[in-house]
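Example record used in the benchmark description.
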Amino acid sequence: MTALRSDPPARTDRQQIDLSFEFYPPKTEKGKQSLAKTVERLASLEPDFVSVTFGAGGSAREGTLQTCLSIVQQSGLTAAPHISCVGSSKEVLRDYLERYRDAGFERLFVLRGDIPKGEPAPPASDFSYANELVAFVKEFGGFKIHVACYPEFHPEAKSPRTDMERFVRKVDAGADVAVTQYFFNNGSYYRFLEDVRRMGVTIPIVVGLMPIVDFEQIARFSEKCGADIPLWIRKRMDAYGDDPDSQLKLGVEIATQQAEDLLRNGAPGIHFYTLNKAEASTQIWTNLGLDKMARARAAQALKKAP
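Model output (structure tokens):
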């Protein structure tokens, strides 16, 4: 993959980069055990925090809380729960905000949420748009608010302009950080960044990174969320359709080169969509040299210690 911009010197200070992992609440005992192993492995990489999704229509909201609590207890990592508009009343969400605050969570992902298809309609919500929920959480206080943005634009948006205007409303309502939907074309991120900066957005816009380890699964996700998979990636992945190990290696290679270019060109951080698995994220982390940065930081801290 060729660099999409000129190549300024790569950053070597791990403290300049915000790095995090995303999990979803497991539904079975086997899933809980699998996630515990993933958390144990990824905790050794010392991410800044991990986040836990809320589930379509808010269906996993209790699982979100319990998963966050379990991760903190198991690993000591900082956890950031997600919260969404869909199927949520002010009363219900205020209760969760109080429980999140009482549990010591300081970061929160505030999202509109996906309306589940093919399932019973969720209860009516007191919020129609994410910016309304952002304002509600901001008024409640006590959280660093993360919101979503779409460099390739939300599939339900009438136009790129209206989608960016919705994003600006979330920022104006009190968002502190944005995390992108995953993408495979870095040019879309750079263009989006330039456009929203011209619209007055100054908050950090962290890159959401999705390694392709199961092409059929990621292709389904991408169809729903509007993430474009370039034809050259599709063709190379199709060639490994019956070879999951080769798909993993190729997915790690593509994601590593993508992340290298983004960090070299000033992306403030990477949020890894893990799908509750550790292998791809761990390999990319090592390829980027982030493990070496962490060790250097630890060594520096020891030297400064009395």
